[in-house]
Amino acid sequence: MDHESDWSLALEQQTDLSMTHGNVPSLAAAVRRGADLRLYMTTEWYEETIYFQQTYAGDGEAVAGLMTHHHGYVHHRQEVEQPNMSIFKYDTSGTYSQMKWLWGDIALDESQAYPYGIYRWFVCDRWRVVYEHDAEGRCIAGDLEELKEHVRRGRSIQVGIRQLFGLAEDTTDGPAHISFVANMQPTIKDGQVHANCDLVVVGAPFWPFTWQDGLHVAMMQPSTSGEMVCFIAEPGQLPFTRIIRRRAMQWMVAERG
């Protein structure tokens, strides 16, 4: 089945960031609804499309795509004996944040402004909220039993975590936001749904933010009880630390795919 039509162009920007299609508020609104996000860009050497594993959306025009584990095969255009991993944040400002994590637990902040030839932001607006709860696990909307049934039927499930940024310090005082994270393995246990997530990026509780403001990576398992079991670390500052936090969340099912 061809799902190409599921992806729509939400925003196109030129090198000078002028908009030739769409607008930022509409892009941010789609991401707040849980839409998948991709970004096509051109340089003088190559073209690329980034598939973001995680998204961030706040109020108004606050929106960003997060690549949580970009695999690097060279370092500064030189061949290397060991791989590296970069954590990227792209927004509509023309500046990207990049933390390169080298073998041996060495972290290099290589963020910069780069004049890409064109920026095309695509969204796949295919998610529906099935269940929403507060940080204590109290139901706000939806049906937990329906969510469980979607898990049993092999449906695609994602979770949006409110006030994720600031998790390391356990502060929720920053700007209101929600971050949607990739779910590798939904499970049902003790009456709750749990999500074994792909690698998750946790930034500082600001908007706009850069990795200079703070950056952690986490392996986490949020659940519909509101509890999140996490192993969290700063790049270049291993080992991981085990923490338990509570956050309000939205649980969504894909209507397509």
Gap between N and C termini: 10 Å
The overall pLDDT average reads 96
The portion of residues assigned to helices is under 10%
In total, the number of strands is: 22
Low-confidence stretches: none
Strand content: over 45%
- Overall tally of structural domains: 2
Overall radius of gyration: 18 Å
Please describe the topology of this protein.
Blueprint: E1 8-14, E2 19-22, H1 24-32, E3 36-42, E4 47-51, E5 54-58, E6 63-75, E7 78-90, E8 95-102, E9 106-109, E10 112-113, E11 118-124, E12 127-133, E13 139-142, H2 144-152, E14 157-162, E15 177-181, E16 183-189, E17 192-197, E18 200-203, E19 215-222, E20 227-233, E21 241-246, E22 249-254
Antiparallel strand pairs: 1-2, 1-11, 3-4, 3-11, 5-6, 5-15, 6-7, 7-8, 8-9, 8-10, 12-13, 12-22, 14-15, 14-22, 16-17, 18-19, 19-20, 20-21
TL;DR?
This protein has two helices and 22 strands. The chain is mostly beta strands. It folds into two domains: 121 residues, no CATH class; 128 residues, no CATH class.
Descriptive report:
The chain is mainly beta and 257 residues long. The protein folds into two domains: 4-124, no CATH class; 127-254, no CATH class. 7% of the residues lie in helices and 55% in strands. The chain has helices spanning 24-32, 144-152, and strands spanning 8-14, 19-22, 36-42, 47-51, 54-58, 63-75, 78-90, 95-102, 106-109, 112-113, 118-124, 127-133, 139-142, 157-162, 177-181, 183-189, 192-197, 200-203, 215-222, 227-233, 241-246, 249-254. The strands form four sheets. Strands 5, 6, 7, 8, 9, 10, 12, 13, 14, 15 and 22 form an eleven-stranded antiparallel beta sheet that branches. It has a five-stranded antiparallel beta sheet with strand order 2-1-11-3-4, covered by helices on one side. A four-stranded antiparallel beta sheet has the order 18-19-20-21, with no helix packed on it. Strand 12 (127-133) and strand 13 form a beta hairpin. It is globular and about 55 Å long. It starts with 7 loop residues before the first strand and ends with a strand. The model has no long low-confidence stretch (mean pLDDT 96).
